[in-house]
Amino acid sequence: MTILENFSLKNHNTFGVDVSAKYFAEVSSFEELRETLNYSKSQALPTLFLGGGSNILFTKDYEGLVIQLNLKGISEEVLNEEEVLVTAKAGENWHEFVQYCLAKNYGGLENLSLIPGNVGTSPMQNIGAYGTEIKDTFDSCQVLNLETLEMEEFDREKCRFGYRDSIFKQEGRGKYVIVEVTFKLTIKDHVIKTEYGAIQNELKKMGVQNPTIQDVSKAVIHIRQSKLPDPKVIGNAGSFFKNPSIPLSQFLEVQKQHPEIPHYPNGDLVKVPAGWLIEQCGWKGRQIGNVASHELQALVIVNKTGSATGKEIFDFSAMIIDSVKEKFGIELEREVNII
Ligand SMILES: Cc1cc2nc3c(=O)[nH]c(=O)nc-3n(C[C@H](O)[C@H](O)[C@H](O)COP(=O)(O)OP(=O)(O)OC[C@H]3O[C@@H](n4cnc5c(N)ncnc54)[C@H](O)[C@@H]3O)c2cc1C
C-alpha cells in the first residue's frame, strides 16, 4: 500500500480543477482496498472514492484520503441460449466495457456507449442516455460495507434506482464502495432501441436500414462526439443539472406564460428539459470569468479557460439555479457530486 501526500487531482477530475488531496492511494486488489481502509480508519481520515472523476466537482482541496479504485477484470456466465451475466470490476472503464460486450455481440448496453467514467460508478446515478439506463440490464453489484468491511450484494430493488439516482447517492452515500457490477445481457434477439434522440437520423446518414447493436453504438458515438464537449479538450462533467420533474398544476401555470415549453409526461409529474430552461434565461454560451455554459448545450458547464477553480464553477451553477428559479419558479438540482 502506497499512500502519497499532497497529491494533485488536476488530472483526476474531468473539470480539470487544480486541487489536491492530503493523501492519495491507488488500489488494485480487494486486499489493498481493505488495507487502505483499515489505515484510514486507524488515522480517522475522511475518505473519498474516485473512479474516472467525470461526475465530481472539487470546490476545495480534499483534507483526507482519496482512494482511486483500479480493480480490473471481466467475467461471464452464460445463463441459457438467450442471456449471459457479465461482471466487471469497479475500475474497468465504462466505454471499454460496453465495447467488450459489443465485440461479443452481447446486447443491452449499446445506447450507453461513450459515457465517461468507470463501471463501479455506473450504479451510483443509474447512468442513462438515449432511452436506456443501467437499471434496464443491471443484475446486481457487490459492495464493501465501510463500517463492517464485509461484502454485501445489492440487487436491483435494493439499489432503489431512479432518474440519475440510487441508494448510493442518497442514504447509502459514503456507506458503501461498489467493487463490481453484474449485467444481464442478451445473446440473441437483441432489443434495438432507436426511437430516442437523433439515433434514427444518424443511422440513415450511415446508410443502415436494419441496425445491429453495433450500429446503434456507432450512431450514439457519432451523435455524442458531435454535440458534447470532449473533457480532454475542455473541462466539463457532462450535464451539470438534472431535468426537473414538476407537478402538473405547476407545469400548467408555467405553460400559460411560456406556451412553447417542451415537456414529457413522467408518471404523475411533468419533466422539463433543464437545458431549455437555462437557454431561455440567456445562459447558453455565456462566459463569466473562467467558466461558461457550453455554446451547443446549455446544460453543460465548462472550464472555459482551463484555469477555473471549483468554487467559480459552483458559483456559476448557483447563478443559473437562481435565474431559472426567478424566471420559471422551477428549482434545478445539480447532477454532479459536489465535494
Ligand atoms: C462529457 C460527459 C458526458 C457525460 N454523459 C453522461 C450521460 O450521458 N449519462 C450519464 O448518466 N452520465 C453522464 N456523464 C456523467 C459521468 O460520466 C457518469 O456519472 C459516470 O458514471 C461517472 O463515473 P466516474 O467513474 O467518472 O465517477 P467519479 O466522478 O469518479 O465519481 C462520482 C461519484 O461517485 C463516487 N464513487 C466513485 N466510485 C465509486 C464506487 N466504486 N463506489 C461508490 N462510490 C463511488 C465518488 O466519490 C463521487 O461522489 C457524463 C460526463 C461527461 C464528462
UniProtKB/TrEMBL annotation:
Required cofactor names: FAD
Chief subcellular location: cytoplasm
Functional pathway: Cell wall biogenesis; peptidoglycan biosynthesis
GO molecular function: FAD binding; UDP-N-acetylmuramate dehydrogenase activity
UniProt xrefs under Gene3D superfamilies: 3.30.465.10, UDP-N-acetylenolpyruvoylglucosamine reductase, C-terminal domain, Uridine Diphospho-n-acetylenolpyruvylglucosamine Reductase, domain 2
GO BP term, example: cell wall organization
GO CC, alphabetical: cytosol
Residue ranges constituting the FAD-binding PCMH-type domain according to the UniProt record: 16-188
EC number(s) reported in the record: 1.3.1.98
Keyword field: Cell cycle, Cell division, Cell shape, Cell wall biogenesis/degradation, Cytoplasm, FAD, Flavoprotein, NADP, Oxidoreductase, Peptidoglycan synthesis
Active-site residue list: 164, 239 (proton donor), 335
Protein's cellular compartments: Cytoplasm
Catalytic activity entry: UDP-N-acetyl-alpha-D-muramate + NADP(+) = UDP-N-acetyl-3-O-(1-carboxyvinyl)-alpha-D-glucosamine + NADPH + H(+)
Top-level EC class as recorded in UniProt: oxidoreductase
Record-linked InterPro entries: FAD-bd_PCMH, FAD-bd_PCMH-like_sf, FAD-bd_PCMH_sub1, FAD-bd_PCMH_sub2, MurB, MurB_C, MurB_C_sf, Oxid_FAD_bind_N
Annotated HAMAP family: MurB
PANTHER family: UDP-N-ACETYLENOLPYRUVOYLGLUCOSAMINE REDUCTASE
Family stated for the protein in its record: Belongs to the MurB family.
Role noted for this protein: Cell wall formation.
Entry protein name: UDP-N-acetylenolpyruvoylglucosamine reductase
Organism: Chryseobacterium koreense CCUG 49689
Gene: murB
